[in-house]
Structure formats: structure tokens, C-alpha cells
Amino acid sequence: MKDFVDIHVLLSTPEDMEDVHDDPYEASEKLNTILHLVFDHIDDDEEVEKIHRIIEKTWEHWHLESYLLEIEVDDLVDWVDHLLSTWDDSQEPEEPEEA
What we know:
This protein is mainly alpha-helical. It has one domain (2-88). The chain is 57% helix and 0% strand. The radius of gyration is 14 Å and the shape is globular. 16% of the residues are buried.
């Protein structure tokens, strides 16, 4: 179901990074590299909602990281592999049901 997710809508812009990083353009590029790595490693038949949760978690984790610009792509690949191999939806907070 990955075909139903447009990763380009979920990517960062330099404006997203202005308040956090000295070089918002480079930070945005690095975050987008991470988001693409995650997306590329997700199984093609994964549920759309789960894909969005994984991408959101990735965004939240890396957006504010001060060492974002210093991390190497090889380390990112390891992080992505770890994220996806240990992902457990039961650990994610559930949305409250509407009455």
C-alpha cells in the first residue's frame, strides 16, 4: 500500500528547520535523506497509516537533533534498519475514539 503514500508531501523544507539549525537548507536536505531512506526500506505492502506513523516518528526524532548535520549516511542506514526491525505499533499511543 506504499503506492498510496506520496513521500514528497511529507518532506521538510528549510523553513521547517530555521529555528533549530544554523544551516536550515543542509538540515532539511539531511532530514529528507533520512525520510527517503525510511520510506525506501518500508515494505511495499505496509498499511498507509503505519507508514505515516513511522515517517512522523522519524520526523519527530530527527527534526530537533543538534547533530543532524554531523551524522553519516552509513549510520543513518543502521538507524533506519533498527527502527524498522524494532517497530511495534502497540508502543505507539492510540488516538482517542470519538463518541
